[in-house]
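re: the backbone from monday

yeah here it is again, tokenized this time
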């Protein structure tokens, strides 16, 4: 049953339903259900499709746009190296379950800290060439950011944040002061650093290594120099870079030779490493503090014995570099194909390749046409990006073949012919 509201569905986004004046929580949910019904009718409900198999270059999905499951080329997964399907990693995860069972049983502080957790934290410290006890694992990459920041930054501190950082960072800043600067804008960053000098106990600049929507890199070297010039600290969330970029797969930070200098590195275990979880790398004193002060470490059960597979995944970054090579080759091939069609892919330097369209409804139509052509890619609209910056977001994998990529490129060409999404000459 509908409830009265003044929201124009033709111009609305999910954000319009976060807080609706005069509607209580349950009435707000009813209004939102009307909106999702409208999106489905319009053919723009491109979310929460059911996948019937594991991550891979092809997946079997069910959607409102088709009868029964359909096999599609997948451009939606962050499983960049396809390590979720690596036989050595799966065997190690299974061995972990056989040895320890299916769960950790408690939070790390009060009984849930097992030897496989210790091995993983030690291996992460070694992976980043940091001293022992420099790492701490979390159940998700999201909480690696949010729980760490909630524990570290309080009312006398200040975070200086690139506006394009992940939502988990913003959630972690709810108890502190926040200054933002436009994406990768060094002039505005310097202004924020200058304006906050001597006003707070801690000033922490927070950036991504690889940005999740545009796939571009932070100017980490210049940002680091400015941060230290003004006596602040630097945190880099390199969730999309670690395991994929850099000579040795240590991420965007390695590309700038700053692995031993960044004050806090945060990352995820759910992308290049093919599992679930997150971590931070910092001074042993910081890691120790978070073990006892970060709420997720104290009040939430920790990762399962399947974590054992990550011990192998970390080794394979060094032992099987060919996966990064294949991924880089796929990225170069796909980018060239899109650029040859005069599509706008922005400034991406990673396996995340956006096709920028601008109009939200045209973006929804493009996603539907791609799916009909057998290609599953994400429609990203406001508030995921600004209102005029809607795009199709694609993520490539090492295991995509040229045939997969050609099928995707042909589908984009078809969409361009139907909708006219190329940059105007």
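seq for it, each position gets an aa:
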């Amino acid at each position: 049953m509908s409830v009265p509201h003044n929201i124009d569905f033709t111009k609305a986004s999910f954000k319009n339903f976060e807080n609706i004046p005069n509607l209580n929580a349950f009435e707000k949910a009813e209004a939102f259900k009307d909106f999702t019904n409208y999106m489905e009718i319009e053919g723009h409900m491109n979310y929460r499709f059911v996948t019937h198999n594991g991550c891979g270059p092809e997946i079997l999905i069910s959607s409102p746009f088709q009868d029964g499951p359909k096999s599609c080329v997948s451009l939606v997964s962050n499983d960049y190296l396809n390590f979720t399907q690596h036989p050595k990693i799966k065997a190690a995860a299974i061995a972990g379950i056989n040895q320890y069972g299916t769960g950790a049983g408690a939070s790390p502080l009060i009984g849930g800290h097992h030897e496989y957790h210790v091995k993983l934290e030690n291996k992460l410290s070694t992976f980043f060439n940091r001293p022992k006890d420099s790492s701490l694992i979390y159940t998700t990459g999201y909480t690696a950011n949010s729980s760490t920041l909630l524990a570290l930054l309080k009312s006398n501190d200040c975070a200086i944040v690139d506006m394009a950082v992940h939502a988990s960072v913003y959630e972690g800043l709810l108890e502190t002061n926040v200054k933002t600067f436009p994406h990768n804008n060094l002039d505005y960053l310097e202004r924020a650093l200058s304006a906050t000098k001597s006003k707070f106990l801690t000033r922490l600049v927070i950036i991504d290594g690889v940005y999740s929507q545009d796939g571009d890199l932070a100017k980490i070297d210049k940002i680091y120099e400015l941060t230290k010039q003004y006596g602040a600290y630097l945190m880099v969330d390199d969730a999309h870079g670690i395991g994929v970029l850099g000579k040795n797969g240590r991420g965007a930070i390695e590309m700038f030779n700053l692995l031993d200098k960044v004050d806090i590195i945060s990352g995820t275990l759910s992308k290049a490493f093919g599992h679930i979880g997150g971590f931070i790398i910092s001074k042993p004193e910081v890691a120790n503090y978070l073990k006892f002060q970060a709420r997720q470490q104290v009040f939430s059960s920790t990762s399962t014995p399947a974590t054992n597979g990550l011990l192998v995944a970390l080794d394979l970054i060094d032992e099987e570099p060919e996966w990064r090579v294949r991924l880089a080759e796929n990225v170069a091939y796909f980018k060239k194909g899109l650029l040859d069609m005069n599509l706008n892919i922005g400034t991406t330097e990673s396996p995340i390749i956006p096709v920028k369209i601008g109009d939200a409804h045209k973006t929804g139509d493009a996603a539907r046409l791609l799916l009909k052509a057998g290609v599953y890619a994400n429609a990203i609209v406001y508030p995921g990006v600004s209102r005029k910056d809607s795009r199709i977001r694609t993520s490539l994998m090492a295991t995509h073949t040229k045939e997969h990529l050609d099928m995707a490129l042909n589908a984009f060409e078809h969409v361009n012919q139907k909708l006219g999404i190329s940059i105007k000459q």
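The chain has two domains: 44-74+322-419, 87-319. The longest helix spans residues 322-340.
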